[in-house]
Amino acid sequence: MHRRLAATALACTLAGLPAAAVADIRITDDAGREVVLPRPAQRIVSLAPHVTELLFAAGAAPRVVGVVSYSDFPDAARQLPKVGGYASVDLEAVVALRPDLVIAWKSGNRNTHLDRLTALGIPVFINEPRRLDDVAGSLRSLGRLAGTDEVAERAASAFAARRDALRNRYAERPKVRMLYQIWNQPLMTVNGEHLISDVIRLCGGDNVFAGLPQLAPTIGVEAVLAANPEVVVASGMGEARPEWLEQWKRWPALTANAANNLYFIPPELVQRHTPRILDGAQRLCEQLEEARAKRPPR
Predict the structure, then answer these.
(1) Total-model pTM
(2) 173-293: which CATH topology?
(3) Looking at the predicted structure, is the pLDDT value of residue 243 above 90?
(4) Which of 40, 117, 252, 272 is a good FRET partner for 87, with 20 to 30 A between their CA atoms?
(5) What is the DSSP string of 161-184?
(6) Domain boundaries defined on the chain
(7) Hey, do 2-156 and 173-293 end up sharing a CATH topology, with the first three levels equal?
(8) What is the bridge-based pairing of β-strands 183-184 and 187-188?
């Protein structure tokens, strides 16, 4: 009898507590802000294509109710309601979906949009992977927010295992000085803090513009010629090798041109902060290994 009364009293006490006292999810996002949810999110809006892909990989697909343009992987993401683009979010469309969580991209979304959503009382979690470790961490964080921890942990562990296998095979190979070219007009690359530079390091590469202060700096042709990379890897807009990669053939003295080390990787495989970045890493590692094989014997 006393045990039943004690159990009843405990149940009543817990029932009288605010939900946050028993069920809060507290997690720090990539902007250093604590995000608090009373329970796993049931209606999530993604404000970046890579966030959409991460949510699907973390097992949260049934919770995603809205995405931005170019959220095209996996195929099921294409069918979800659109709320504008990552740089031009339609706030009314977001609010109309009644989200209990918005996942944003620090480098891509406008602060004014995120501040407005926060002012409306919608929890906003900011994602910004800068290292390959952060991709696994993003999967775990999104899984926790959506209540899909087990699926997310499996995805994160598989990602880490594949990353480690590539690192063990390529990271200590002879260094290859390279340029990763995002675009041609303006001519853009990445610095050493960008996630793509972590992929370059994974493959034993050396980003010749790692020391620049901007995350995705604009540079000049003269700077490239002065740096004289052994390899140039371009992205572009889709699956096709960009025509502008051939511009480097105008400079015969450029080492990358002289050695025929002008390569291409589809941007969605290396410019999205998702598990597929290791598909891009695999290609880059193989390209750098091919460049090493072309070196004259010493």
Answers:
(1) 0.86
(2) Rossmann fold (3.40.50)
(3) no
(4) 40
(5) HHHHHHHHHHTTSPPEEEEEESEE
(6) 2-156, 173-293
(7) yes
(8) antiparallel
